[in-house]
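#structure-requests
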Amino acid sequence: MRFRPALALACALSVLAAAAGSADSIWDYQAVNPDGTGSHPLVGADPLPENRVTVEGVALAGVAEILNPADMYTIFIQDDTSRRGGIQVWSGRFYQGPQWRPAEYVDFQAGDRVRVTGLLANHNGKVFINDRHSGSPETRFTVTVLGHVGLPDPELIPSVGNCNFFDPTRRDGGERYQTRLVMLHGVQLGAGNWANNSLLTVSDSTGSVGLLLSRMGDFTGNPRPQGAISVVGIMDQEDNALPYHDAYRIWVKKQADVAAALGSCREVQSLAAGESVALAGKVVSRVFDGHFYIQDEGRAGGVRVVSDREVTAGDVVSVMGTVVEQDGEKAIAARYIAFGKTRAVPLTVGGGVARLSGSLAPDGLLVRVPGTAGPTSQGGFTLYEDSGQPVAVSLSAAAAPQPGARVAVTGVAVRRSGSMELEAAHGGDLRILE
């Protein structure tokens, strides 16, 4: 078949256009040079229509949660189509006079999906969208709220040492996490004033990084956290001099985004309802309607997590929330859940609940208990352990066995009204023994 030159040219142009379009992601706009300035060709480009970019993503804070909207307008947008990329949008009254905020700069809430079209610029180590400090229609950006999808899950940063340095490849360091919702666990708070608009530090054995308390937060008047803490906030940078390699910080919105960092699940049992806590790197053992259980990988303990978030047994999660009492047991009402790599569910602890209670605290642990089925009840039955000890079994999605049947129950051990019970999640947790 004869190949026509005109067709070849059209095909080549379409390929180039597709390639150009596919490169225009938030992650690409955030690419940096070795000195920390933006390397994308549209950064700082002339204010022409063809130099405007369009980005879409989720707003990480509402219009009045970070900066005073009477003085400044800002959106932190996270790309919700991948695990990479975020960008800030900013405008300020200081450069434009009292009528500085045009109609295009609309109100929005945290969790709104937004579309922004505007011009790229450098600012102290990050690429953002701004109006070039001008009220001119040619430089203004436009903001459209597309709907409400909710906040993305924060990303757990392994340690401070993973986010407090400059890496132009963005394989690690502050540039990788910039303008994304992140979590740090088990860090110590440095000296400084615990109040709105204060810049402090948090540190661990690998280093320190900035902690900026929102100007519009509720920190002033609230108690300063003590001991090891976890924080959830927006990774940011504000370096005032070239090269832009420093001054990374986590911008925290509210007091509720800071919690006591616990090491093991069983610590929750000794805390009062209402306390803010966080656990990191725990394995989901069983999932129920409205809640699930997590446990330490070493099977030292477990705890209920109150959440409708979709999880699967074997997921590794980090949880921040408030201690509550539900169904007679201590639990964590989750505010944030960060996901890690999936692992196999830890092996169940075998033996009778009565015996286990004498050697360790099985509360919240996945256990496997053999015995004989006793009388049925609404939603469950009584299991007689081999020692003769009765244990109440709650069945979420399985029929009770016939009384007298020899069975093995895999379930979460929970303490209710002073007695240990077993909560089974599905039919696979109930096995009839020969």
